Amino acid sequence: MTTASPALPGSPSELEKIAMGWMHTARFLTTAPELHHLPALDVPEIAFVGRSNAGKSTCINTLTQQHRLAFASKTPGRTQSINLFSLGKQGITDAVLADLPGYGYAAVPKAAKYRWQQVMANYLQTRRNLTGIVLLCDPRLGLTELDEILLDVVRPRVVEGLKFLVLLTKSDKLNKTEANKVLSIVRLQAGGGDVKLFSALKRKGVDEVARHLWDWAHPEGLEGQMPAQNQPAKPNPQTQDEEPEAPEA
Ligand SMILES: Nc1nc2c(ncn2[C@@H]2O[C@H](COP(=O)(O)OP(=O)(O)OP(=O)(O)O)[C@@H](O)[C@H]2O)c(=O)[nH]1
Ligand SMILES: [Mg+2]
């Protein structure tokens, strides 16, 4: 393994750089207006959820360093389907990001609102490969009633190990005192879960969040990332009498 050179204060660490490179591999996979249109996948999936206009699509574009990957707009309700983006070097998908339509947009007709709430609750409760949820929240609104409902929906899965991160987006709109205040309030509301400040505009928290998501998708760490020629030789199964033993944790 290569030894990481010490990072200068404020500069991205070696792992953050790896995570940003990984994020940059993002490419469009598919769009699904309903749950049953989503392909069954066996790689970790990370969903971006939150109120309409919270900055989900912009956050994905910022993390992936691609301006037009996800549709972002001043008009709330811009994202109307579940959009999946593949991540992984050399065209090999090792994780997927999911950009979800936002909730809470007043101008959406009641029936459409209800339908979407059902689709989202279903997605969050049943998507088998869902590994982590990033809940984006405008810190000037804080966690709203609809966000609390979402927290209730996902709580049983979080208890079972689903990863969870709250991002306070548009933090460029707050001064330091306001930011610290909302950070501690939302930390309490989120029951001690991870809460971070984020700004697409000022690029605040970008490297750190990329690293966080990389960790979610690569629980085996850098060791699992070694190129094949550096890994210990695998026994040829055709020359084995028995099943190979599971690698040690
Ligand atoms: N100042 C500032 N504006 C932001 C930031 N992130 C997003 N925005 C703006 O917020 C608006 C909504 O952003 P989107 O990314 O489309 O929001 P969304 O959550 O995907 O919205 P829906 O698709 O409607 O659910 C756009 O005008 C963005 O430019 C940020 O960090 N700072
Ligand atoms: Mg969007």
Question: Overview of this structure, please?
Answer:
With 249 residues, this protein is α/β, with parallel strands linked by helices. The protein has a single domain, classed as Rossmann fold (3-Layer(aba) Sandwich). The protein contains 6 helices and 7 strands; from the N terminus they run αββαββαβαβαβα. It has helices spanning 14-24, 56-64, 110-126, 145-159, 176-189, 206-217, and strands spanning 27-32, 45-50, 82-87, 95-99, 130-137, 163-168, 194-197. Strands 1-3-4-2-5-6-7 form a 7-stranded mixed β-sheet, with helices on both faces. The two termini are 18 Å apart. Mean pLDDT is 85; it is low at 228-249. Bound molecules: guanosine-5'-triphosphate and magnesium ion. Magnesium ion (MG) is lined by residues 56-57, 72, 78-79, 99.
> What is the CATH architecture term?
3-Layer(aba) Sandwich
Strand fraction equals 15-25%
Shape: globular
CATH superfamily: P-loop containing nucleotide triphosphate hydrolases
Number of domains: 1
Number of DSSP strand runs: 7
Structural class: alpha/beta
Global mean pLDDT: 85
Elements, N to C (H/E): HEEHEEHEHEHEH
